[in-house]
Every structure is written in structure tokens, then in C-alpha cells.
Design goal:
The structure holds two protein chains of two kinds. By secondary structure, chain A is mostly beta strands. Chain A is 0% helix and 53% strand. Classes of the chains: A mainly beta, B mainly beta.
């Protein structure tokens, strides 16, 4: 298993500003994932953060809006840029590990509210 | 695009009744995973099914993977208040993990 922490746990931000979310894992992992979850909804993958290369973004998400850093194998950041109320959501960091290497472990999430 | 449909969206049960959620994929999956998310919490991995027709049990939870590896189910026997939450399936296809919409288990007071 993996222990994942995220900072901040929650924030309330003004429209037009940016917020950087940090994700720290207690072990080295090759791939880290950033998800978004609207209240009561399923998870939507934003991007996969790879160490040493640019993140891979899913359809509908772009680097200018959600820049990602992955400076080492235990840490990643996701920035939500030029925020609007539509960006209000829970942002979750996740890693793939476990016995099969396929189990996804999630951080506690960052609850973002944009006014 | 590839989809995993999960039903029902909600299920209200009396404590002690059974609960079942179903997932159906538009494509053949290499594996399917199940997660539980408690209210206010994050998804927690429950199990992974890989083989065609596989059945796995965890205490009162029974997980099945269809013969064609396109559908799966989670059945909880005799629900307890600790079972409350949303159960998600996530199917892996072409290295992508495709999430179902989740089924929310609600225990009637």
C-alpha cells in the first residue's frame, strides 16, 4: 500500500486566481495521477504525472489550465490556474501500486471552492 | 468512447437487507477493480478481478467478473451501517482505467 498526503485539504479561492495542490507519497512510484471529483459524481482523470517527462493530459484538460510538476518519484503538484466557479471540485492525487501493481491508492483530496 | 455503465445510481435498503451493484463495459476489460468511498472520504481499493468468470469474497462482499470480461457485480449480504458509502467499479482497457458512475448505498433509518 501507499500513504499519500495532500496539501491543502481545502481552500476557498477568488475567481481568476491560481491554487497549487501538493501531493506527497511515502514511497517511490513511477506514475502519479490527478483526478477531479464533483460532489456526488464519479472520478475524472485529469492527467498522469511522470517523473522526468511532461504530464499526459486527458481529453478536455490542458497544460495551461492545469500545469503539473513531478520533480521526483515521491512528489507532484497540480496547479489550477485562472480559476472560475466551474473549477470548484475535489482534486485527488493517486498512485498505482499494491500487490498486482494495479491497485490505485488515493490521497485524502483537496476540496476547492471558487467564489 | 469506452464506457463503463454502473447501476443503480442509488440503492436504499433496510439494515440487514442485501445490496447489489452492476457494471457493464462497452469493451472487453483486462481487469476490473472495485472501490468504496465513504461520505466525505476518498476512494479505497477493495479488490481486483482478472480472470473470466472469477468470483472473490471478502466476508459479506462477493465480487464477480463475467465470462466475457465485460461485466461485473458486487453483492453485499446483510448490510450493516458500516457499509454505507458509494461503490465504484473501474475497468481497465487499453491501459486506461475507466470509472463507473458509482452506486450509493443508503441504509434506511
Amino acid at each position: 500500500s501507499a500513504v499519500i498526503s495532500q496539501k491543502p485539504s481545502r481552500d476557498i479561492c477568488q475567481r481568476g486566481t491560481s491554487l497549487t495542490i501538493q501531493c506527497q507519497v511515502d514511497s517511490q512510484v513511477t506514475m502519479m495521477f490527478w483526478y477531479r471529483q464533483q460532489p456526488g459524481q464519479s472520478l475524472t482523470l485529469i492527467a498522469t504525472a511522470n517523473q522526468g517527462s511532461e504530464a499526459t493530459y486527458e481529453s478536455g484538460f490542458v497544460i495551461d489550465k492545469f500545469p503539473i510538476s513531478r520533480p521526483n518519484l515521491t512528489f507532484s503538484t497540480l496547479t489550477v490556474s485562472n480559476m472560475s466557479p466551474e473549477d470548484s471540485s475535489i482534486y485527488l492525487c493517486s498512485v498505482k501500486t499494491g500487490l498486482s501493481g494495479n491497485e490505485q491508492f488515493f490521497g485524502p483530496g483537496t476540496r476547492l471552492t471558487v467564489l | 468512447g469506452q464506457q463503463v455503465m454502473q447501476i443503480p445510481q442509488y440503492q436504499h435498503v433496510q439494515e440487514g437487507e442485501d445490496f447489489t451493484t452492476y457494471c457493464n463495459s462497452s469493451t472487453t476489460l483486462s481487469n476490473i477493480q472495485w472501490y468504496k468511498q465513504r461520505p466525505g472520504g476518498h476512494p479505497v481499493f477493495l479488490i481486483q478481478l482478472v480472470k473470466s468468470g472469477e468470483v472473490k469474497k471478502q466476508k459479506r462482499l462477493t465480487f464477480q467478473f463475467g465470462e466475457a470480461k465485460k461485466n461485473s457485480s458486487l453483492h453485499i449480504t446483510a448490510t450493516q451501517t458500516t457499509d454505507v458509502g458509494t461503490y465504484f467499479c473501474a475497468g481497465r482497457s487499453n491501459y486506461q482505467l475507466i470509472w463507473g458512475a458509482g452506486t450509493k448505498l443508503i441504509i434506511k433509518p
